[in-house]
Each structure stands twice: as structure tokens, then as C-alpha cells.
Amino acid sequence: MSKVYVVGVGMSNVGRFYERSLRDLAAEALFKAIDDSGNLTPEYVVVSNMLSSQAEQENLASLIADYCGLRGSSGFKVEAACGSGGAAVLVGYSLVASGLAKVVAVVGVEKLSERTTPEVARGLAYAADADFELPYGISFSGLNALVMRYYMMKYNVKREEMSAWPVLMHENGYYNPYAHLRMRITVDDVIKSPVIADPIRLLDSCPISDGAAAVILTSEELARKYNDTPVLIAGIGNALDSTDISSRYELDTFLASKLSAERAFKLAKLSPKDVDVAELHDAYSINGVVTLEDVGFAPKGMGAKLVAEGRFRIGDKPVINPSGGLKSRGHPVGATGVYQVCEVVMQLRGDFPGVKVGGEVGLTQNIGGVGSNITTIILRR
Amino acid sequence: MWRLKDILLNLVGTKCLNCGHVFYPPKAACPKCSSRNVKKVSLGTSGKVITYTVVNVPIEGFESMSPLIIALVDTGGGKVLTQLTNVKPDEVYVGMEVEATVRRSATTLDGYVPYIIKFKPKERYS
Which of A93, A344, A364, A374 is most buried, with most CB under 10 Å away? Predict the structure, then answer.
């Protein structure tokens, strides 16, 4: 199996761009990534997206490849709900590792600002169980709220402790020029913000964002030839759990977070203590906290408490979400996993334009559903 | 919805005949031991609230039913995600005893009016 390197990254800003189209955002990210790679031409364009059907557009690989002057290349879309980006990078990795392609572009894109919040909330709920959860009207916020209440009761976590997560995210995201919500917030702001799905408040929740991010993946041979700063995909793993939350063994553990991280660490021959910087999938404060524990950065039940005590910020090992995470950078749903890879690659290269961590080893974890489809990626300088 | 009427109106789960694991919603094989030797079982009609939420921001189609009280109820046979009815949001608590009842759900986007099992506070008879 050939080693696989990230040799180019490109991101659009994350936000609500009423004047821009899906293809326009995708082209910005893809062209930036190609330029960053030393002008490699992708043989494959692998696109990640979740909800383009709401704008009556599917068949995204053809659309984007052709719009970007790559007619005749190969490609398709990968869908794994909010975890589409990480899953698409795994597919791109496989194409290069297997030798089927030498240069692969993975483009994550999401464009939701024309849709109303109830429409997008319904679309996101399609990642839950359509037969056994949707008829009850449960939203994604609602499903995560069930987990948050259970977790806080089981481990006696205070509201103030849980609020430390979004405060840290906004502190980091404030410095990220790509971020959707660049403002500082306080614990008091979180506690007084409107209730979305009790106990989840507005400032526990990520925004619904537009955005596109792209990476160029290539083999060792081409990586060394065209690029001075290739970053190795040292490990990668995906795991599935139930779509429904009724049949989960544990409500306060994401089995797929744990298993996908174990698979990625095994392939990389590394462990959580080796990680310098990580981008975790904090769609809600509770997701950040639970996966901090399930990846192996905090003991069970201690995630929120450790963040409240001041852990995981700049100067610590690991630093978590220097981008600001989904909370502040934003959540361009199907693109988020690709953003995470771009951000960690830039951290390891030393050219991330926000909070700088540096280091040797980075990790990304991208979640689809309520922890039901998770990809973990380990990157090494 | 029609094909689901027996399941949604009767609270049917699955029991694995190989390892004994009981779970809801029904599946074609056991999530624990992968055995396909499973059978449908009734989950019972009462249980206790394990965790709950009050959804203030509805998804499309549920605007008129907002706020929704959604709970995970342990029926003893398996955990069931459900809506609570006949109760106010501030009256719900973890450990609350509830029982199944048939209620109307929101009209689907294609115009059907589904009836589903919801749970209400258990009535006590003295």
C-alpha cells in the first residue's frame, strides 16, 4: 500500500453567502488547493456534501469537475451525513493508497443559506432514523440534548462547566480569518442564551454555514517531487454505530468515535498522548466533550471539567480546536471534515493563519449523525 | 407510514434468540452477536423516563406541535425514543413513570396524518 500525503489545501471563508453558489464556493477551494499543491492535476474529484438535494442539485462531482475545467476526470460524491468530509478523505486516501490514482482532489461543499432553519433542521434530521425517530419530530439539537442531559446527570457536571467548551471555541475562532462566528463569549452569555432543545442552548450550538474546503492527496513519489511541505496521512479509520439512539448500549459514549480513533491510531502506530493538535466535531458542546473522552484525551466523565479547569488551550498537549471548532469556525455540513484536515495540515506546516500550535502529530474527527458514522484521521509532518 | 403501522402502534422490538439481547427499533440481525436468528417481541406499554428534552426550534412540519417533549423511555424490554403527551414541559423529570397511548403526529410533508404511540404520565388508581 502506497503512503498518502496531503500536498495542497484550500478553503473558502465559512459563513452565509447569499450571493454565492455551491459551484462557486467549491471552485474557490479546489483552485486554492491545486495552486497550493504546486499545480498538480487531479485525476479524481471526490466530492463530499450532505444536503445539496434541498437545492435540487445532485451529481456534484460532474458539476464541480466540469465547472473547474476538469471535464474527463473521474469522480463521485461521498455521503455520510455531517461526517461526509472525513469519509470522502478516506475514499481519496484509498484511491491513492491502492495505486488506482496518483493525484486525488477531495472537495467538501455545503450551501444552505437560501433555506429556512426548519427546512435545514428537517434535512439534518434525515441523518437520524426516518421510520422510528422522524415521526416524533425530533431535531438534531433534540437528539443531542437527550445525550447532554444524561451525561450531565450521570457525571454530575454543572452547567458552568459545560459552558467552558463554547467559550474556549470562540476564544480560538476569534483569531481564525475563515471562521463564521468571530466573537468572544463568556460563560454567562452561554447560560443566558435562548434554549434550543433543553438543556442545549443557542451558544452550545454550531451555526448552519456555507463553505467549501479541498485537499489534494498524492503518493510519496509525487509528494516529494512537487511539494516542500507534504503532510502524511499516517492513520485513518471509520466506524459505524446505530442510526437510532434508542438501541445504543451507552448514551454517554460514542462507540464509533472510540472505534474509528482506535483504527486510525493502530494504522499510524501512535496513541492519543502523541497528538499535538486535534480538531474535534463539536456540533454541540456535548459532542466536543464526549469525543474528547472517547478519542482518549480525557477520562470518562471528565471532559467538560478538564476544559473548565483550563486544559486543551494553547500551550497544552493536545490543543483542541484551534480553528474554533464547529462552534465558532462554523459547520458547513458536508464540508466540515475537509476543513478539519486543511486546518490540521496548516497547523503542522506552520502556516495556519489563526491560533498557531505547530507540533508533529495532528488528529481530526468528523461525525455523521448522533455519533453514528465517524471518521478519524491522523496526520504527521 | 402504512407499512410501519404494526410496529409504530404496537411497540415491537427484536429479541436475539442466540444471545438474548432485546432492542428497539427492530433490526434484521442482532447488533451484539450478528445472529439473524431474531424474533419480534412486544416491549410492554409502560416505563420510566431515562432522559428528555423540550424542543423549542421545530423541524419543518412540526411547527404547530412545538414545543415538543421528547423522551427516551426504558420499558424494561428496551429503550424507546418517543414523545410525551398530557404533561407540561416543567412537569417532566428523569425517573417519571409513563404509559403508552395512541396520538396523532404531525401531518407528513406528503399529506398523511399518522397515528403513533406517545407516552403520558402513568395514571394512579386508588
Answer: A374
- A205 contacts on B by Cβ (under 8 Å): none
Instruction: Identify whether the C-beta of residue A333 lies closer than 8 Å to the C-beta of residue A112.
Output: yes
- B25, B54, B58 member nearest A246 (Cβ): B25
Q: Are A215 and A92 in contact (CB under 8 A)?
A: yes
Strands (E), chain A: 4-11, 44-48, 74-78, 103-110, 195-197, 200-201, 211-219, 231-240, 277-279, 319-320, 361-368, 373-380
In tens, the pLDDT along B2-60 reads 677 776 788 899 999 999 999 999 999 999 999 999 999 999 999 999 999 999 998 99
Specify the pLDDT at position A114: 87
Q: Do B55 and A118 touch (CB under 8 A)?
A: no
Shortest CA distance from B13: residue in chain A? A247
pTM check: above 0.95: yes
Categorize the per-residue pLDDT at A228 as very low, low, confident or very high, splitting at 50, 70 and 90.
confident
Residues B34 and B71 both lie in one domain? no
Residues of B in contact with A138 (CB under 8 A): 55, 59, 68, 70, 81
B34, B73: one domain? no
What is the pLDDT averaged over residues A303-313?
98
State residue B109's pLDDT score: 86
- ipTM entry: 0.95
For B12, name the nearest residue in chain A, comparing CA atoms only. Answer: A132
Answer CATH for A4-115+208-231 from 3.40.47.10, 3.40.50.2020, 3.40.30.10, 3.90.550.10: 3.40.47.10
CATH class of A140-206+232-380: alpha beta
Domain that residue B29 falls in: 1-42
- Alpha carbons A243 and A106: distance in angstroms, whole number: 26
Which of A138, A195, A196 is the closest to B81 by Cβ?
A138
